[in-house]
Design a protein that fits this description.
Helix content: 25-40%
Bound molecules: biotin
Radius of gyration: 17 Å
Order of helices and strands: EHEEHEEEEHHHEEEEE
Structural class: alpha+beta
Shape: globular
Strand order of the largest sheet: 1-2-3-7-6-5-4
């Protein structure tokens, strides 16, 4: 049961995410890709680097799983991006940073934004999955590009097709077999595991040792404050 992708490409859009969120005809597998964006959005309303030659796409999913498992999807998307990057640069030190950043050499190469949309209250909500990957350029020294690691120009559409193929396999595994094997895969490739971290959750900051990802895809850490295990469902992670 693989996803049937229906890909729409545009030379330029304000944001693929915004464009897909506004659609009335959502269906699972609908992909909106732009070769450049004017106002790409990141998590928490941040901006995303919009240079031509990079990958900007959003796709719709309607997963037949309980909403409390949606965090698993976000980790699965990160895993698909990691596998696709490794396909181009097998020796590059690619890691996953919870919840859904992909880094190379400690520098962000890809960002993922997932938002939900209910079209009809009788039906399961859609997830709108937005992915940006710095394929041929990066905004500055703090970010990585795949071109630098693969030592060649990266064809955007080939990368897109490989990424959608990789995600389709992972998603099928999630739906048919569950999350456990994927959770382990994610952890093998995870950044910060076992390390002392801080998580910014809105205005609050919690620090502690990152010990695990739970069966919903949430982060588990032993808090400095009370030495107790805490589960975090969203936030930004920093090394401290
Ligand atoms: C983040 O790391 O904050 C998430 C960045 C997500 C950027 C992508 S680019 C394609 C899609 N369209 C958008 O406007 N945002 C996402």
């Amino acid at each position: 049961m693989s996803i049937r992708w229906s890909i729409e490409t545009h030379n330029i859009l304000s944001s693929t995410q915004r464009s897909l969120l506004e659609r009335k005809d959502l269906s699972e597998g609908l992909v909106v890709q732009a070769y450049s964006q004017q106002a790409g959005r990141g998590r928490y309303g941040r901006e995303w680097f919009n240079a031509e030659g990079n990958l900007f796409l959003s796709f719709a999913l309607q997963p037949a799983i309980e909403p409390e498992r949606f965090g698993q999807i976000s980790l699965c998307v990160g895993l698909a991006v990691l596998r696709t990057i490794k396909d181009y640069a097998s020796t590059a030190p690619v890691v996953l940073k919870w919840p859904n950043d992909v880094l190379v050499d400690d520098k962000k190469i890809s960002g993922i934004l997932i938002e939900s949309k209910t079209v009809d209250h009788k039906d399961a909500p859609f997830l709108i999955v937005g992915i940006g990957v710095n394929l041929n350029s990066a905004p500055d020294e703090q970010f990585a590009s795949l071109k630098d690691r693969a030592h060649k120009d990266i064809d955007v559409d080939s990368f897109r097709d490989k990424l959608l193929g990789a995600f389709s396999i992972i998603y099928n595994q999630l739906i048919t077999e569950g999350f456990e094997a994927l959770r382990k895969q994610w952890l093998i490739n995870s950044y910060h595991k076992g390390q002392h971290i801080a998580v910014k959750i809105g205005e609050k900051k919690v620090s502690g040792q990152f010990v695990d990802i739970d069966r919903f895809g949430y982060l588990r850490l032993i808090c400095d404050e009370d030495n107790k295990m805490k589960t975090v469902s969203s936030g930004d992670v920093f090394l401290v």
